[in-house]
Write a structure and sequence with these properties.
alpha/beta; Rossmann fold; 2 domains; 5-stranded mixed β-sheet; 5 strands
């Protein structure tokens, strides 16, 4: 069974509209408690844990905390543009369309912490780190791959999760520029 980890009750409500029989666990914000981590560890013994947080800094913090504590958890991502509130002041799962949620949950990624298909040096050689426009280019690639909006270190980790190679990135860059 899949356990979908979200930040709050409104996220659960939206996920249940998209997938009525979904099983969700709420973190109650970015300061995820030890009790919640321990509960997820216990659940992970017999279930898949899918981290599905907002594409913002608190969501990334939750994702990182869970990933560090739960081996082989899976990740679902929403593009920021797909979950902006009507007044354009908030970002979150609760503001996403049912279709965007279903799409994100149908395209999950599993963490593989020991697989390195691309290196920091290769990212540097592709101008994805250490250059003036690196952040902008990473954002375009992240959006293309639907992996959130990570910093350079997390970007590298997510590329390795997806087993993206330097050659793959070169093709993506050519498509996007």
């Amino acid at each position: 069974m899949d356990i979908i980890v979200v930040e709050g009750i409104h996220d659960v409500d939206k996920v249940l509209k998209a997938i009525p029989d979904a099983n969700c666990v709420i973190t109650n914000g970015s300061e995820i408690s030890k009790e919640t981590i321990n509960y997820l560890k216990e659940l992970s013994k017999n279930n898949n844990i899918i981290v599905f947080t907002d594409p913002d800094s608190p969501g990334e913090k939750i994702r990182k905390t869970i990933d560090e504590n739960i081996s082989n958890c899976k990740h679902a991502f929403l593009r920021k543009k797909d979950c902006i509130s009507n007044n354009h002041k908030k970002v979150g799962i609760e503001h996403a369309s049912i279709e965007a949620i279903i799409d994100a949950l149908n395209n999950v990624y599993t963490s593989c912490n020991n697989v390195n298909t691309i290196t920091v040096n290769e990212l540097y050689s592709l101008n994805l780190i250490g250059k003036e426009n690196s952040s902008e280019l990473r954002d375009k690639i992240s959006d293309y791959l639907n992996i959130g909006k990570p910093n350079s270190k997390t970007f590298l980790k997510r590329l390795n999760i997806l087993q993206i190679t330097k050659k793959d990135l070169e093709k993506i860059i050519c498509q996007l520029t």
